[in-house]
Amino acid sequence: MNDEIILPVSKSKIMLLFVGALIFVAGGIQFVYAPQIFANSKYRPKSPELIEIIGITAVLFFGVCAIFGLKKLFDKKTGLKINADGITDYLSATSIGLIKWSDIVGIGTAQVHSQKFVIVEVSNPEYYINLNKSRIGKMAMQSNYNSLGSPISISTISLKITFTDLKELIETHYEKYAPQDCITTITANSSTPESSQNC
């Protein structure tokens, strides 16, 4: 029996992300070219140099996000694939393809600000970090590992599925195909990851 689940990318969500990134890029450009205007704000005065640095950072970060979003709008690949082999992720800059069930030791959740993630804890995190060929992608995965306890996190921000349904879907397949007898449940925020085991 074919037990493969294909989750498509939501083009409408990607479009919203793309437009939002462009707005932040435009704001960053204004920070760079007219920092003195924003530095003299009566609410939070700052030095023009700091405003300029913030602007450059915004242009670089959200510029990358906009490029990624534009590519995803015309990308024919699926967003996420779940089958007997594991989870294949095509969603973001931290995507590294197939994550094998045999490498997964826990499924959990994390929330950074208002964004929720499914955390996929693996026994060999450095191996998966090194699979990412992008320097930015490796840095993002290392940051995930340091703050969330795993380099692999999956968001529904660009998928046609709710967060709760995605988590349940992954957990169900993990219980079915993973060799472990227990599932590690991870609960984390941006600074204090915690974990427990449910057997």
Report on the architecture of this protein.
The protein has helices at 11-33, 35-39, 48-73, 125-131, 135-148, 163-177; strands at 5-7, 80-82, 86-89, 97-100, 104-112, 115-122, 152-154, 183-188, 194-198. Strand 5 (104-112) and strand 6 form a beta hairpin. It folds into 2 domains: 5-73, no CATH class; 84-198, no CATH class. It is elongated and about 60 Å long. It contains 6 helices and 9 strands; from the N terminus they run βαααβββββααβαββ. With 199 residues, it is α+β, with helices and mostly antiparallel strands. The strands form 2 sheets. The chain has a 5-stranded mixed β-sheet, with helices on both faces. Helix 1 (11-33) runs antiparallel to helix 3 and helix 4 (125-131) runs antiparallel to helix 5.
Q: Can you tag this structure with a few keywords?
A:
single chain, 199 residues, alpha+beta, 2 domains, five-stranded mixed sheet, 45% helix
Low-confidence stretches: 185-199
Number of helices: 6
Our Rg estimate from Cα atoms comes to 19 Å
From the N-terminal CA to the C-terminal CA, the straight-line distance is 28 Å
Give the strand content. 15-25%
Report on the biggest sheet: 5 strands, mixed
Draw up the topology in text.
Elements: E1 5-7, H1 11-33, H2 35-39, H3 48-73, E2 80-82, E3 86-89, E4 97-100, E5 104-112, E6 115-122, H4 125-131, H5 135-148, E7 152-154, H6 163-177, E8 183-188, E9 194-198
Parallel strand pairs: 5-8
Antiparallel strand pairs: 1-2, 2-3, 3-4, 5-6, 6-7, 8-9
Helix pairs in contact: 1-3, 4-5
Brief sketch in words of this structure:
The protein has 199 residues and is α+β, with helices and mostly antiparallel strands. It has helices spanning 11-33, 35-39, 48-73, 125-131, 135-148, 163-177, and strands at residues 5-7, 80-82, 86-89, 97-100, 104-112, 115-122, 152-154, 183-188, 194-198.
